[in-house]
Amino acid sequence: MEQITNSEPKWYAIHTKSRHEFQVFERLSMKGVEAFLPTVERLRKWKDRKKMVAFPLFPGYLFVHIPKTSQDILSVLKIKGVVRLLGSGQANPEAIPDEQVTSLKKLVESKETLDPYPYLNKGEQVRIKFGSLSGVEGILVEKLGQHILVLSVDILRQGVALRINAADVEKI
Question: Residues 160, 104: contact at Cβ < 8 Å?
Answer without folding.
Answer: yes
